[in-house]
């Protein structure tokens, strides 16, 4: 059994080398020997947004005479994560798969390096931000290609009318459509005051404290604003530090003004809270606005997407990139790379952004000023500040800059939101920090 | 005594006539509590039905959740004209039926061997069959990934992401219980019956098909229904092993394609859930007594 | 019989010894062959993967190195693990007790009413058990929804404020148990009803002649008569409840603060979502010894039943 395995592996390795060799040659139709490619895309939350990838893939497939099958896999209930784990264990599955935030580094050993795809893209479309590089590039190797579809900034999306009424804040003046933000006053203190005012007025801010990504991302950005790191880049546990204490104290005060069931919120809860008209602010990409446009137009008209409040260490906005990667057991790696390259062109990216109503966000610097963001309505310009066009906030990911293996655990186990909830529910600061330190210690094992 | 019970109109049992007042009250209380429990038991399915008849706009308007102001069948039309939903339904139906056939053939034959033809290790095997019930599938699905990888490498057969893989996997969940029911039924058939047949020159197979299966038919029907219900409802294995929409079965299909993270499409989700629950409910409505016989098999013997 | 013997004298008179011997031999071979599909199914798809899972549990996170009991040692040092142990026991035991009580009470009421109407009630009350759990849990999820909760809407009419059904640790624990009880108690009801019907009517008559109250009748007649069936049902249910996955997974996914995680869901979180497959396998394995204790009790009953046969 052992020997057959080895020879089989050698055989696979041999074919892999052969096919990459062929891709160097121009016009490699014959290289896609199997003529078949299977793709697993993230199932988009914005109704109708899957159409863009479908059409683009068809265009490519017709041109290259490759038969492509697409699966749209939801991330709800972590189905996409489960699929990725299953394919990695079973060593078979889609040729191209959408890898969420942390997965390229988790499956680094099983992914085909993508330097030959990403480097030309950076040359053509501009640099990628630090978060994308942190997540997608390990030891000088691009493990996967930053995808437009599903990448998002989870900045605040507020009710214009309610912020004005309860907190006296004119969010449109702070973040005017088509112009740079005038948001110096938009800091953590004023944010807290606004949260209090809105809660007193009966329309609290809807920031979840559950364990799913929306909640973790928001907590991550607040922690960054204080410079609070749980684990530093070298892997040292730094949870027992003043910035972390400050962040927890701040969150404790904030939590008093959040809905009482915030600790159980998932990625859909904040959307429902906003669309139902109860909430005055949530941290979310424009999917909530898109649903409101369909189901509750009177709410949608009052929504405005903008930037995060600034803290002592700066203004951070959570950025959650998706990647497209290719398994090393894929039988058709050359074709896979060709398709990914095609999907990453500026024209393709713009098509995806439009189809998703501005939700999708290319990671490349030159691609953040498509017209669609300025034009989406109602109200006109509601999405102008969504792609961070003026680099007003630093795009970040919760748990960075810890080493990937640890950061991933911090993120998936939602250590930050759990700490917040523990402390805010009355646990002593030291106990919360001890608990976190112990959990983090567990993550450092390998 | 008889007069008393007629006068009160309460359908009491004559033997308890002397306590008819007590019984009348007991009866009222019984009905009262049964109504309460029925409300508790039926509330979720009824709420599914109510929600499924609403538009998204009405749901998000957060008006009276128990009242439908603009009933619509749109959710049903949308789902039933959607190709993928019909595919889920077809996959579920084929998988469930195949699993029923496979399970019943394996378990009826094996149960016969275990109940009647004692052989070396048969007692251990009977116990072992029962013990498999104790091994949770959450423990098994990761090793199964590894085994599938091995099968793919050795034989080139791809087991991941195919609905028919479920036909191989589900019997692990249904066969132990079905065998268990069948052993119980077969054991209650008098020994003289098969001894007579054997002496008459019938083979073991003939004894099984000509005598045991007809006699144990109610038990077989019960086990069949039970197997079908389990196969239809299974969640973890298809969640772990299938991904493409063409390969999903109904419960997983509904959970993974109708729920879209941010965008909860509750009208359609409830419609899907109700349609997914329909086949077992319909079978149950017609064959309730067999179903209950299956559940309570062996209960009165214990 | 006589007829058979007459027609087949050889069987009786002739090769009594060698024929019988051959028959026996043939019989066990045939029997083995008949049970073979069952054996193969269990060996390949249950026993082997279960063994493999034990092996996996002894590897390090990257599955490159044998660490023996390392994963278990690691687990014992974690608060979250003990929280999961506590919650699994709380979840399974509380749920089974309530299922048993509700099942018993409802069975009693159904038994009380005239037998004409019993079928109808029984049919209605068994519905939760028939709906696939993944589907009905979705309905509960929607009933519990923080923004649109239809339950809170009703409670608001009684002056009860918003209950965070899945938001607060205590309520979330209550909610997962509630849903589990909802799905499982009809099963108990139907089993107990069958058992109630098998209690001889004369025993009650005798009891009431002796002047026993209804409570005494239940305590001294019904319960002792049903002891076996109550035990078996409870143990069966305990196994299934312990190994539960879909209810907790769909309803709370373990939150808030890991307070509703049970073995199955935490193993999934650690193994699949956290990427530490060996640790996930180790967590799942903890179910087995607890279930084995339950199994020995059940097995005693089985052997009893076997000897009756």
Low-pLDDT stretches of chain A are: 1-34
The first-to-last residue Cα distance of chain A is 28 Å
Any idea how many domains of chain A?
A: 2
Largest sheet of chain B: 2 strands, antiparallel
The count of strands of chain B amounts to 2
Helix content of chain A: 40-55%
Number of helices of chain B: 15
Q: Which CATH class of the largest domain in chain A?
A: Alpha Beta
CATH homologous superfamily annotation of the largest domain in chain A: Periplasmic binding protein-like II
Mean pLDDT of chain B: 81
Task: Looking at this protein, list some descriptive labels.
heterotrimer, A: 446 residues, alpha/beta, D-Maltodextrin-Binding Protein, domain 2, 2 domains, 6-stranded mixed sheet, 13% strand, globular, disordered N terminus, B: 302 residues, mainly alpha, MetI-like fold, two-stranded antiparallel sheet, 15 helices, 2 strands, flat
Written account of the structure:
- The complex is a heterotrimer of chains A (about 450), B (about 300) and C (about 300).
- With about 450 residues, chain A is α/β, with parallel strands linked by helices.
- Chain A has two domains: about 1-150 and about 320-365, Periplasmic binding protein-like II (D-Maltodextrin-Binding Protein, domain 2), CATH 3.40.190.10; about 155-320 and about 375-445, 3-Layer(aba) Sandwich (D-Maltodextrin-Binding Protein, domain 2).
- Chain A has helices spanning about 1-25, 50-65, 80-90, 105, 115-125, 130-135, 160-165, 170-175, 190-200, 215-225, 240-255, 270-275, 285-295, 295-300, 335-345, 345-355, 370-375, 405-410, 415-425, 430-445, and strands spanning about 35-40, 65-75, 95-100, 135-140, 140, 145-155, 155-160, 205, 280-285, 305, 315-325, 395.
- In chain A, the strands form three sheets. In chain A, strands 1, 2, 3, 6, 11 and 12 form a six-stranded mixed β-sheet that branches. A four-stranded mixed β-sheet of chain A has the order 8-9-7-10. Chain A has a two-stranded antiparallel sheet with strand order 4-5.
- Chain A is globular and about 60 Å long.
- Mean pLDDT of chain A is about 85; it is low at about 1-35.
- Helices cover about 75% and strands about 0% of the residues of chain B.
- Chain B has helices spanning about 1-10, 20-50, 55-60, 75-80, 85-115, 120-130, 135-155, 165-170, 170-185, 190-200, 205-215, 215-235, 235-240, 250-260, 265-295, and strands spanning about 260, 265.
- Chain C is mostly helical and about 300 residues long.
- Chain C has helices at about 1-5, 10, 15-55, 70-75, 80-110, 115-125, 125-130, 135-145, 150-155, 170-195, 200-210, 215-240, 245-250, 265-275, 275-285, 285-309.
- In chain C, helix 5 (about 80-110) runs parallel beside helix 10 (about 170-195).
- Residues about 1-15 of chain C have low confidence and may be disordered.
- The chains are: A alpha/beta (about 450), B mainly alpha (about 300), C mainly alpha (about 300).
- Chains A and B meet through helix 1, strand 2, helix 3, helix 12 and helix 13 of A and helix 3, helix 7, helix 13, helix 14 and strand 1 of B.
């Amino acid at each position: 059994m052992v020997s057959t395995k080895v020879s089989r592996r050698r055989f696979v390795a041999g074919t892999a080398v052969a096919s990459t060799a062929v891709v160097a040659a121009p016009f490699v139709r014959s290289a896609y020997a199997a003529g078949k490619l299977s793709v697993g895309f993230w199932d988009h939350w914005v109704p109708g947004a899957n159409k863009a990838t479908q059409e683009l893939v068809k265009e490519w497939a017709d041109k290259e005479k490759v038969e492509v099958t697409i699966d749209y896999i939801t991330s709800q209930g972590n189905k996409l994560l489960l699929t990725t784990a299953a394919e990695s264990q079973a060593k078979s599955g889609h040729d191209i798969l959408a890898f969420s935030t942390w997965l390229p580094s988790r499956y680094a050993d099983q992914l085909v390096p993508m330097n030959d795809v990403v480097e030309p893209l950076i040359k053509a479309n501009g640099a990628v931000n630090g978060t994308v590089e942190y997540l997608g590039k390990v030891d000088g190797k691009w493990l996967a290609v930053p995808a437009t579809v599903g990448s998002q900034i989870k900045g605040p999306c507020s009710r214009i009318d309610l912020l004005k009424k309860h907190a006296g804040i004119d969010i449109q003046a702070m973040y005017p459509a088509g112009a740079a933000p005038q948001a110096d006053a938009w800091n953590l203190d004023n944010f807290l005051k606004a949260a209090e005012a809105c809660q007193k007025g009966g329309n609290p801010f809807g920031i979840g404290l559950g364990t799913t990504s929306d909640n973790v991302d928001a907590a991550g950005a607040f922690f960054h604003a204080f410079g609070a790191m749980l684990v530093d880049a070298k892997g040292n546990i730094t949870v027992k530090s003043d910035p972390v204490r400050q962040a927890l104290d701040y969150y404790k005060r904030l939590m008093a003004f959040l809905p009482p069931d915030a600790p159980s919120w998932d990625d859909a809860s904040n959307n429902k809270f906003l669309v139902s008209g109860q909430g005055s602010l949530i941290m979310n990409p424009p999917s909530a606005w898109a649903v409101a446009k369909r189901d509750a137009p009177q709410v949608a008209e009052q929504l405005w997407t903008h930037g995060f409040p600034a803290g002592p260490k700066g203004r951070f906005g959570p950025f959650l990139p998706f990647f497209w990667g290719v398994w090393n057991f894929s039988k058709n790696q050359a074709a896979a790379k060709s398709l990914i390259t095609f999907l990453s062109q500026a024209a393709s990216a713009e098509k995806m952004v439009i189809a998703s109503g501005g939700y999708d966000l290319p990671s490349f610097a030159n691609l953040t000023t498509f017209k669609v963001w300025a034009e989406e309505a109602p109200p006109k310009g509601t999405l102008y500040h969504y792609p961070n066009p003026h680099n007003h906030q630093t795009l970040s990911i919760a748990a960075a800059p810890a080493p990937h293996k640890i950061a991933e655990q911090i993120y998936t186990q939602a250590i930050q939101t759990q700490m917040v909830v523990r402390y805010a529910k009355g646990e002593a600061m030291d106990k919360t920090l001890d608990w976190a330190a112990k959990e983090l210690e567990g993550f450092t094992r390998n | 005594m008889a007069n008393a019970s007629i006068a009160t109109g309460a359908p009491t049992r004559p033997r308890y006539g002397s306590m008819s007042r007590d019984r009348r009250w007991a009866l009222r209380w019984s009905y009262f509590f049964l109504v309460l429990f029925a409300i508790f038991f039926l509330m979720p399915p009824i709420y599914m039905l109510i929600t499924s008849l609403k538009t998204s706009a009405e749901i998000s308007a957060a008006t009276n959740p128990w009242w439908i102001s603009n009933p619509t069948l749109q959710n049903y039309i949308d789902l039933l004209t959607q190709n993928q939903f019909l595919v889920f339904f077809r996959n579920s139906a084929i998988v469930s039926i195949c699993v029923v056939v496979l399970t019943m053939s394996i378990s009826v034959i094996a149960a016969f061997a275990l109940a009647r033809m004692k052989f070396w290790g048969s007692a251990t095997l009977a116990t072992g069959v029962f013990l498999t019930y104790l091994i949770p599938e959450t423990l098994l699905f990761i090793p199964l990934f590894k085994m599938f990888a091995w099968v793919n490498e050795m034989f080139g057969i791809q087991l991941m992401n195919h609905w028919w893989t479920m036909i191989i996997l589900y019997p692990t969940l249904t066969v132990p219980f079905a065998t268990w029911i069948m052993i119980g039924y077969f054991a209650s058939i008098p020994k003289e019956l098969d001894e007579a047949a054997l002496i008459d020159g019938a083979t073991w197979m003939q004894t099984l098909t000509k005598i045991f299966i007809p006699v144990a038919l109610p038990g077989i029907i019960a086990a069949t229904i039970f197997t079908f219900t389990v196969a239809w409802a299974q969640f973890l294995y298809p969640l772990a092993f299938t991904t493409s929409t063409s390969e999903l079965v109904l419960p997983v299909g509904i959970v993974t394609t109708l729920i879209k993270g941010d965008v909860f499409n509750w009208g359609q989700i409830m419609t899907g859930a109700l349609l997914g629950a329909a086949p077992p409910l319909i079978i149950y409505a017609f064959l309730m007594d067999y179903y209950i016989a299956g559940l309570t098999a062996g209960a009165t013997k214990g | 019989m006589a007829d058979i013997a007459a027609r087949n004298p050889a069987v009786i008179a002739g090769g009594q010894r060698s024929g019988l011997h051959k028959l026996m031999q043939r019989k066990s071979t045939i029997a083995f062959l008949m049970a073979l599909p069952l054996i193969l199914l269990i060996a390949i798809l249950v026993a082997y993967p279960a063994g493999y899972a034990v092996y996996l549990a002894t590897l390090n996170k990257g599955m490159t190195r044998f660490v023996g009991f390392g994963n278990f040692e690691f687990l014992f040092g974690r608060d979250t693990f003990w929280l999961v142990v506590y919650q699994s026991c709380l979840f399974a035991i509380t749920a089974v007790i309530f299922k048993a009580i509700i099942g018993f009470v409802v069975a009693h009421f159904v038994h009380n009413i005239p037998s004409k109407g019993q079928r109808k009630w029984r049919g209605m009350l068994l519905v939760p058990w028939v709906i696939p759990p993944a589907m009905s849990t979705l309905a509960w999820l929607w009933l519990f929804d923080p923004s649109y909760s239809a339950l809170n809407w009703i409670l608001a009419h009684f002056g009860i404020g918003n209950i965070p059904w899945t938001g607060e640790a205590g309520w979330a624990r209550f909610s997962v148990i509630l849903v589990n009880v909802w799905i499982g108690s009809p099963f108990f009801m139907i089993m107990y009803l069958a058992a109630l019907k098998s209690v001889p009517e004369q025993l009650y008559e005798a009891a009431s002649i002796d002047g026993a109250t209804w409570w005494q009748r239940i305590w001294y007649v019904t319960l002792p008569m049903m002891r076996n069936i109550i035990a078996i049902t409870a143990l069966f249910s305990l196994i299934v409840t312990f190994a539960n996955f879909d209810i907790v997974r769909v309803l709370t996914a373990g939150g808030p603060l890991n307070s509703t995680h049970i073995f199955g869901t935490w193993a999934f979180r650690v193994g699949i979502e956290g990427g530490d497959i060996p640790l996930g396998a180790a967590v799942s394995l903890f179910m087995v010894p607890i279930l084995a204790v339950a199994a020995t009790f059940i097995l005693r009953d089985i052997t009893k039943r076997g000897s009756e046969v």
